[in-house]
Amino acid sequence: MPRFLALGDSYTIGESVSEVERWPMRLAAMLEAVGSPVTVTIIAQTGWTTDELAAAIEQAAPQGAYDLVSLLIGVNNQYRGRDPSQYQLEFRQLLAKAITFAGGEPGRVIVLSIPDWGVTPFAEGRDLVQIAQEIDTFNALNRAEAEQQGAAYIDVTPISRQAAADPALIASDGLHPSGKMYGVWAELAFAAACVALGSPK
Q1: What SS3 state is found at 174?
Q2: Is the pLDDT of residue 104 over 90?
């Protein structure tokens, strides 16, 4: 059976939602529905930055090749005030590693943008404009790296910002996406996943 490796942080492990509501699991369910079931391996933890994800990957030592690999990382770099240039370098290295896990085929790798947590109740009282601008800066960097290395890029930031007007898109913790939002992410990633797997859309 084809294998799907999902790399990231709280947005990939699905903090505050059930396992089946995590976006990689929602995507796997969609793929199974079109006759392309995959097994899912997740290396992700709430709070991880790029360097922490890299260390965890080294420790887990996943064995490729995987038929599909996703990478979504960076919100904690932004939250902790890390330098964007450091993020770009470490993201570049993570993306290269993801491509290696995908058998050296960048077309099997999906990069997701960082959602904007500034629209959540958790961010109340903070500088929301600054948060949005910093998220946009980080996303410009991960998009550029994805395009340069030939990976698919899925922009989930616009739907994350709709949470400002739709509380149902936010989980009960007031910070992370709900299962509803993760379902939209899976829909956005579905076409690229089908291309990676050679599956009908």
Answers
A1: coil
A2: yes
